[in-house]
Amino acid sequence: MSRLERYGHGGDRVTASELFGLDPDSFLDFSANIVPFGPPPSVKQALKGILETEGLPVITQYPDPRSRRLKALLAERHNLTPTRIAIGNGAAELIELILDVVRPSVVGIVYPAFSAYTSSAKKRDIEIVPLYGEEESHFLPPVERLCELVRKTDLVFLGYPNNPTGLCISFDELKQVAKEAIRCQTVLVVDEAFLDFIPDGERMSLIGQIESYPSVILLRSLTKFHALAGVRLGYAVASPKWVKRLEQRQVPWSVNAVAQVLGEAALQDQEYEQRVREWVQQARMSLRMQLSRIPGLKVYPSETNYLLVRLEREGKTAAWLQEQLGQQGILIRNCADYPGLDERYFRVAVRTDEDHERLVKVLKQCLDEDEEAASS
Ligand SMILES: Cc1ncc(COP(=O)(O)O)c(C=O)c1O
């Protein structure tokens, strides 16, 4: 495990501060994939409302143990009954709960993948069957191999879009895999934590047909697209039977009252959502173009708010680059700890034009200095 990802993830400013000796808030963070211009304005209003209410009831009283108002809003948004929605302390909590409830003997993971699928399975001593995507196909696995994985396992995690690649298999392929999951009674967990960033994401999701796919559990998150990572909020969409079991397994009041109120507020701001979707298309294209022009970097395509990059410099690793950038106050995600990738890969979030400019400038500087040192 590389040093900055000591606790398994990007976005760890405290570790960055310990390593690079800078103030945690001073880092320009490309290592966590969060909308860079903050949560919807409705969230700030709600936060103010919490503070201004006499007696601070949101803080002094217990939260609703089933987040019913938030659930009702989500149910309306997705045209579902609330019985199909479980709210979690981030999608990360739901990943853990799913394994506790489904109790699979063998889990299939499509690599490279979000690290929590592996760490949650390993914690429970569950056997993992890996499926590695090929670099030539940008790590997207062929559908036949996915169906095979479904046949060999009790539960499969599939990133849709995947982290760290930002790509999805096609919707037709997804449906094929989901049908195979029903046939084999394998649980298919489709992690849609980043699907909101894709303009027609909702139409590419099984969420509208979830009644026809009783073996499928969908995961969503409000931490990236709505910039509520510190608040911790996610949800699962599944059959009422699974939802009930997930909730029964959950720590009481796991979703705190502030998170519930802010989540409710975030979902009211449709204008923000439209703005983020439009922004991300343009900003990703621009960042990809700028990075691709830097000699020694191979930038992969992505449909979401981050880019996977391979450093192609003899003898140089992403850990080296992370160190160079970290010293200058910029954080990137070293992807060497993703099974299926190697020490050359790193991931950067899509941010503002100004942030991109700084990243590109410092990256060029590091790589130019390295080349000069090598040729002298
Ligand atoms: C693919 C994927 N799923 C789920 C999560 C966890 O999201 P949350 O912050 O809602 O726990 C992450 C976090 O980075 C992720 O990358």
From TrEMBL:
Cofactors per UniProt? pyridoxal 5'-phosphate
Query: What GO annotations for molecular function exist for this entry?
Result: threonine-phosphate decarboxylase activity
Which keywords has UniProt assigned to this entry? Cobalamin biosynthesis, Lyase, Pyridoxal phosphate
What's its top-level EC category? lyase
Pathway in which the depicted protein is active: Cofactor biosynthesis; adenosylcobalamin biosynthesis
Tell me which residues make up the Aminotransferase class I/classII large domain: 27-363
Positions the record marks as coiled coil are none
Gene3D superfamilies cross-referenced by the UniProt entry: Aspartate Aminotransferase, domain 1, Type I PLP-dependent aspartate aminotransferase-like (Major domain)
The record's annotation in Pfam families points to:
Aminotran_1_2 (PF00155)
Q: SUPFAM superfamilies from the xrefs?
A: PLP-dependent transferases
Reaction catalysis annotation: O-phospho-L-threonine + H(+) = (R)-1-aminopropan-2-yl phosphate + CO2
According to its UniProt record, the EC number is 4.1.1.81
InterPro entries reported for this sequence: Aminotransferase_I/II_large, CobD, PyrdxlP-dep_Trfase, PyrdxlP-dep_Trfase_major, PyrdxlP-dep_Trfase_small
Does the record's keyword annotation contain Lyase?
A: yes
> Which range is the signal sequence, renumbered to this chain?
none
> What does this gene product do?
Decarboxylates L-threonine-O-3-phosphate to yield (R)-1-amino-2-propanol O-2-phosphate, the precursor for the linkage between the nucleotide loop and the corrin ring in cobalamin.
Q: Which PANTHER family match?
A: HISTIDINOL-PHOSPHATE AMINOTRANSFERASE-RELATED (PTHR42885), THREONINE-PHOSPHATE DECARBOXYLASE (PTHR42885:SF1)
In its UniProt entry, what is this protein called?
threonine-phosphate decarboxylase
* Upper lineage: Bacteria, Bacillati, Bacillota, Bacilli, Bacillales
